[in-house]
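Hi there. Long-time user, first ticket. I'm pasting a complex I've been working with (about 264 residues overall). I'd like to know whether the download I got is complete or cut off, because the file seemed smaller than I expected. Thanks.
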Amino acid sequence: MDIRLPSINKVLISGNLTDDPRTNILENGTHVANFRIASNQRYRARDGEWRDKTCFVDVVTWRQLAERVASRLHKGSPVMIEGELQYTQWNAQDGSKRSRVEILARSVQMLEKTGESGDRPVYSGNMDNPPNPDPSDEPDYSDDIPF
Amino acid sequence: MSLQDRLPGVNYAVITGVVKKRTGLFTTLKGISVIHLLVENTVENPYRESGKSTYEIRVDLWGKAARALDDRLVPGTGILAEGLLAHREIEDYTGGLRHQNVLRASRVEILYIEKER
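Hi, the file is complete. Here it is re-exported in full:
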C-alpha cells in the first residue's frame, strides 16, 4: 500500500501585539489585517535564573476575522493565535529576493478581559486562502546559514 | 505582576514536509550540536488551481537529536517536525540585520527516506 506524506501545518502561539494592526482593503473588497506579536518563553538559564526569551512573529488575517481584529485589537493586546505557517517571498528594493515565514491565523482569541464577566471572545473565520533545545543554551547565530 | 496578568507562554508548531536543503552537523561556540534544515511543506488549498500550497520552512534541530539524526536527514527525506517557533537575527552580506522565524524542533520523526518511496 502506498501512503503519501500527511499534510500537517499547525501553530498555536500566545503573545502581545507589538503595534496596532495594519489593515487594508483589496480592490475586490476583501479585508486583510497584518500585525506582529511578541511571544515570551520563560526558561531557566544555566545560572539558575529565570529569563524570558522573546519570539517576534508576523500574523496575517483575512476577511471577517481581519475586520474584527482591526476593530478590537491594539498595541499590547494579549492574544492566542491558532493557524498555520506560511511562507511569502518578495523582491526587495535592491533587487534581492526576500522571504519570511508568517502565521496565517485561523482564529484569534482575545485574552484581555472585557467587562465584568471576563468574557474572552474568540474570533475565527474562513481564511482558507487569501484571495489571490534547551532554551537556556540559546546558541549564537554567528555561523553562516546558507539558506 | 499577579498570576492573572501573566500571559500563558504557549508556543507550539508542527509541520510535515520534505527536507529540501540542510547544513552539515556543526557545533556552536557553546559546544552544542545543530543542524539547520529547509523543509518543503505542502498543504491542501482548494482555492489554488493546483489544489495545494507549498511553503519553505526553516527547521533547527539541536543537541542529541541532531547528532542522532545527522546521517538520516538527507535531502528528500520526509519528516514530521514538532517544537516551537523561534526568532533569530542574522547578518546579511550588506551587514544589515535580517529577522527569521524558524521552527526549533524538539522532536523530528522520519516518515520516509527518498530511496524508500
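A couple of notes from our side: The beta strands of chain B are 11-22, 26-27, 33-44, 52-62, 78-91, 97-112. The radius of gyration of chain B is 17 Å.
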